[in-house]
Amino acid sequence: MGMAHFQSVLADLSDSLTTYMRTHGDRSHSAPAVGEVEYHTTCVEVQWPWIAFPAALALVEGGRRYHLDVPSAVDVVQWLVSW
């Protein structure tokens, strides 16, 4: 199993999800799309602020866990209180 197989599996998964979303839609927000597909495009809008903050926390925590010179939140609070 190489990278080509992995990419093929992800492409198949993406096609399956796209087909499902186009045929079933989201009944609470919209009706299924009807018509012919002229070209393939992504129909998802990413809300970056909801992803950026948890990602930043994960990076800081990951750096702390791997003993990089990044203090934990508890260390920062203790340092501030000690002033």
Short description, anyone?
With 83 residues, this protein is mostly helical. It contains three helices and no strands. 60% of the residues lie in helices and 0% in strands.
Question: If you had to describe this structure to a student in words, what would you say it looks like?
Answer:
By secondary structure, the protein is mostly helical. The protein has two domains: 1-44, no CATH class; 46-83, no CATH class. The protein is built from three helices and no strands. The protein has helices at residues 3-24, 48-65, 73-82. The longest helix is centred in the N-terminal third of the chain and has 22 residues, at 3-24. The chain starts with a helix and ends with a helix. The mean pLDDT is 76.
Unreliable stretches: none
Structural class: mainly alpha
Biggest beta sheet attributes: none
Alpha-carbon Rg, integer:
22 Å
Q: Domain count, please report it.
A: 2
First-residue to last-residue Cα separation: 56 Å
Our estimate of the beta-strand percent is under 5%
| H-E string | HHH
Shape: elongated
Helix content: 55-70%
Mean pLDDT: 76
| Number of strand elements | 0
- Count of alpha/pi helices: 3
List keywords for this structure.
mainly alpha, 3 helices, elongated, 60% helix, 83 residues
What layout of secondary structure does this protein have?
Layout: H1 3-24, H2 48-65, H3 73-82
